[in-house]
Amino acid sequence: MIVVEDLHRHFGGFRAVDGASLEIKAGSITGLIGPNGAGKTTLFNVIAGRLSPTSGRVKMAGEDITGLPPHELFGKGLLRTFQIAHEFGSMTVRENLMMVPANQTGESLWNACFRRGAVAAEERRIREKADEVLEFLTITHLADQRAANISGGQKKLLELGRTMMVDAKMVFLDEVGAGVNRTLLNTIGDAIVRLNKERGYTFCVIEHDMDFIARICNPVICMAEGKVLAQGTVDEVKNNEKVIEAYLGTGLKNKVKEAAHG
Question: Where does the ABC transporter domain lie (predicted)?
């Protein structure tokens, strides 16, 4: 689905992404882990068109999408969410979802004035889609609440719901667990797995919660200092000496050694 080839993104002398190469296979839920400052979010931003690469290439389904702007990638079914949710706080949860589909008939002044029937019919279809998404995510009870008033975890679910309004193909999730309680995180995890299995979504997930990563992700890629350090199953990555040194810490390293000699 996504192939990244020798990708670089430099900020002056700082190499946030420094020759990263990786593949996100269609139909997978790929975990992306690594210490703070490893370049994970910068990598997401380059792939999703929010930043231009210094060099390197990004392909989606064989097509070179390097440097394409977010709205063009959106049209191709590539979306990303953010560590801090970006909701329209004064609008309801349902209205936030209904805002997502592009090129709605009612956006044209002519159509709004002279094609009211077509505008109303489309709005009904979009509303029905939004209600279906709310039901899928088990947040129907929030439909008429202002988005500013729902919890951080519910906002993360709302962001996931936005991707469902356009039937995304490739979704990049940036720290879905940040500030989310365990119950809601399980709900988010369940929704990601269902979207993957039932609707064919491909995901790449940045997350520091290793239990969450272990539960839903295969394979897992670890980055450090802008480079790909290791990739494989959760267990393979967790037991990789380089990963332990760079990310998981000497405490885990000692535990691994104790278990091996146990």
Answer: 2-250
